[in-house]
Amino acid sequence: MLPEVEPVRSASFSLPGRDDLGDFASGHLLRDAARLSTRAAAGPFRSFGRIAVEPRPYQLVPLMMALKLDPVRMLIADDVGIGKSIEAALIARELLDRGEIRRMAVLCPPHLAEQWQRELAEKFHIEAELILSSTIQRLERDITRHGESVFDRYRYTVVSTDFIKSEKHRETFLLNCPEFVIVDEAHGCTLAGGIGRGGQQRFELLRRITEDPARHLVLVTATPHSGNEEAFRSLLSLLDRDFANLPTDLDRSEREGVRRKLARHLVQRRRADIRHYLETDTAFPERKDKEATYSFGKAYRALFDDILTFAREYVAEEAGGDRRQRVRYWSALALLRCVSSSPAAAAATLRSRAAADQAEGEDVDEVGR
Residue 184 class from Cβ within 10 Å (0-12 exposed, 13-18 middle, 19+ buried)? Predict the structure, then answer.
């Protein structure tokens, strides 16, 4: 405090009187609130008082690694079901509470956008706005200031990677890109890993994002290496440009320095690696190799038969040319697969089919997959 700017004066408070007494329940609530708000004040992480989830010990490893990096450039490649989204969101919440960032964006496939929005809100108290092809017009109508974009207006966003990668929207996003970006399903953003032009557009988007040396980037994927060495190295180059030229024989003893440098940015664990971690057991679901059969009920069978008849007629239509036929093929295939899962999955598929409908010609097969 500067006395020249803000004068310092003595303060006194009268002692509590009879009229200040409250009931026991209110006092108990006040005590619990004070204890909960300060339980992590002396700890290393400021975010623990602002989250509604109790991280497992192994989920703190990416957070501790991230706090040693400036800027944060990480690839979280843990196995399916370990909690990669929680690990990435923990890093974002910690940097927000430390005041190191003010804005953040999650780039993900459109079918995962609502899940990310729900996870951020319920577990990390981050109210993010969905920016998809189906919401952008509504969001832009709410803007009243001249020259303002949706990325200026909303501090926290969940953005469809397929929507924002196109040249029409990419420059607007890059001009107003937040300080912290999470990229889910990052294996689809490699230079050689995408199918057609879509993969190259996604990689170009991320490459432009990393041009700002102060921007934090967390890549999330359960399959970082698909067997394509070029694609994997292009993914690593988003963390550090030197990783694009990594030697192929990293297992040699003289490559210890290179391995250590890469290990600062990459975390990858299998379930077996962390089932017993720091004296804490994690009960991951056991995989059953034997497939179980399922029989439709009468009403469910009628629904499936109706949709199967519709799909046959839908795919057989010849109007619209080859592109429209491919769109109809992928839509029908996705619908049949999901209706075999549940009626709710079928309804969700019908709602999200617009993503394939709005795809550019050479990206139809990619979006369909």
Answer: buried
Residue burial 264-277, b: 16+ Cβ < 10 Å; e: rest: ebbbbbeeeebeee
Helices (H), 125-191: 136-141, 150-153, 161-164, 167-175
| Average pLDDT for 298-313 | 86
pLDDT of residue 194: 46
Residue 156 burial (CB count, 10 A): 21
What's residue 327's pLDDT?
A: 80
Alpha carbon dihedral 114, 120, 125, 129, in 10-degree steps, equals: -50
For 241-278, what is each residue's pLDDT tens digit? 988 888 777 777 777 888 899 999 999 998 888 888 77
Q: Look-up: residue for tokens 């709410």?
A: 142
Distance CA 143, CA 128 (A): 17
| pLDDT over 80 at 36, yes or no | no
- By DSSP bridging, strand 276-277 and strand 280-281 are antiparallel
Q: Which residues contact 171 (CB under 8 A, 6 or more apart)?
A: none
Q: What are the φ and ψ backbone dihedral angles of 187, each rounded to 5 degrees?
A: -65, -20
Q: Summarize the confidence of residues 144-157 as an average pLDDT.
A: 84
**DSSP type of residue 282:** -
Query: Which whole-number Å values give the CA distances from 365 to 107, 177, 368, in the listed order?
Result: 21, 29, 5
Interatomic CA distance for residues 99 and 33, integer angstroms: 23
Q: Which residues of 188-213 are buried (b: 16+ CB within 10 A; e: fewer)?
A: bbbbbbbeeebbbbbbebbeebbeee
Range 97-118 average pLDDT: 94
Query: Which residues does 166 contact at the CB level (< 8 Å), separation at least 6?
Result: 201, 360
Q: Using only C-alpha atoms, what is the Rg of the chain?
A: 25
Phi–psi pair at 45, nearest 5 degrees? -115, 125
State how beta strands 216-220 and 73-76 pair: parallel
Q: Of 268, 277, 276, whose CA–CA distance to 236 is shortest?
A: 268
Read off the pTM: 0.70
